[in-house]
UniProtKB/TrEMBL annotation, chains A, B:
PROSITE patterns: HTH_TETR_2 (PS50977)
Keyword GTP-binding applies: no
Record-annotated DNA-binding residue ranges: 26-45
This protein's record includes keyword Repressor: yes
UniProt domain HTH tetR-type: residue ranges: 3-63
Name of this protein: TetR family transcriptional regulator
Gene Ontology MF terms in the entry: DNA-binding transcription factor activity; transcription cis-regulatory region binding
Source organism, top-level taxon: Bacteria
Species, as recorded: Alicyclobacillus ferrooxydans
Keywords: DNA-binding, Repressor, Transcription, Transcription regulation
Length: 197, 197
DNA sequence: TAATTGACCAAACAGTCGTTTGGGATTAGA
DNA sequence: TCTAATCCCAAACGACTGTTTGGTCAATTA
């Protein structure tokens, strides 16, 4: 139901919101990017804020769906954690602009729009916490504060958009492996993976 | 040299930037907060942007100085890491408003002002990386990608301002301990601290 | 062919923005 | 006492904001 023009406008908005930030991007900027008069945009969007809400909503929903899919498998807890980290980093790097808008600009939404995103974000933390609680129950993880640990892991992953560059040394998967290796084995532990394919 | 009024204005700005964001805060808002006409503020500040720069600069400088002080001690690498995490989280929680402005709003600075903060932030990452490289050299840490691991730890710590509430269960020090326990020992390792005082 | 719809423009709306200016007060120094 | 600096106000500056309105043109439908 979303026309080409609507997608085009959303893409332009993502690009500009990422480059300049939500407030520093004017409706005029978006109109210029797609080659329309700014008034004409209002045939496709309800408001500038609604545009941001849609972008953020789509982004957080993808993260949630991916993590729920991992939880629904019969993997072990450590396997789930590795897979979840891999998913999160892969998705956030390959949709870097959208992820940046979600993590950096969603705060600019007023109520009640902001609450929609906040609720979905809370849900995401919940799912991560479930992974850790599962491992705690099975004895695979030693975790006394599953939620705090979940927030630590999520924080590390959500920081990636701030520093990852395509031109860098490591692929998203390699970064994910460095991350989950530390989360699972720690820095001082002995059982670290050797060189493997 | 900074007068009372200047400090008062800076404090008002921090409070409002944290609550509403930099762009959503008008010079009028700040003037109202300190009980002046907005034009009168310009006897104390060069520009709204300069106000943000000062706030961010002071914040990142404190983080840098603290971490440098830890590096200058003769602690072991694991001890330095624990201390650095403790410092970072304690500081960011007790100056939550300022930290939020640094981490969330500094992006709104235009060049070359943004580059000043970026350089100091890069320096901070460097210092963290040094901690890890030290541990790698001494054999205390098993780290193949010290910089990526530093960014992981820093990400976890820099996310705290997004979720920590004074009303929550854990003190900043307790959160720091959960964090560094995972960083050092991992979730699957056996040598976790028991209940200790 | 006639009527209707959707896409789009140009202009206006009603503000708000950060910053500058010129001039009163009040205070401090010479 | 005269001078100079400091503090602050009131007003204006020009530019820009997101959104609405009325209308034109082409394509689609009946």
């Amino acid at each position: 139901m979303a026309s080409n023009r609507q997608k085009e406008i959303a893409l332009a908005a993502v690009k500009l919101f990422e480059q300049k930030g939500y407030h520093a991007t004017s409706v005029q900027d978006i109109a210029d990017e797609v080659g329309l008069q700014k008034g004409s945009l209002y045939h496709y969007i309800h408001s500038k804020e609604d545009l941001l809400l849609q972008i953020a909503h789509e982004a957080i929903t993808e993260f949630n769906d991916n993590l729920q899919a991992v939880l629904d498998t019969d993997m072990s807890a450590p396997e789930k954690l590795v897979k979840a980290v891999e998913n999160h980093i892969t998705v956030s790097v390959s949709n870097m602009e959208t992820t940046t808008v979600l993590l950096r600009e969603a705060f600019s939404l007023g109520d009640p729009q902001h609450q929609v995103i906040q609720d979905l974000t809370d849900k995401y933390v919940d799912l991560w916490t479930q992974v850790l609680e599962e491992g705690a129950r099975s004895g695979e993880f030693h975790v006394r504060e599953p939620k705090v640990v979940a927030l630590a892991i999520l924080g590390a992953c959500n920081w990636v958009y701030r520093w990852y560059r395509q031109s860098g040394q490591l692929t998203p998967s390699q970064v994910a492996r460095v991350f989950s290796d530390m989360f699972l084995n720690g820095l001082t532990s002995d059982n670290h993976p050797g060189v493997q394919q």
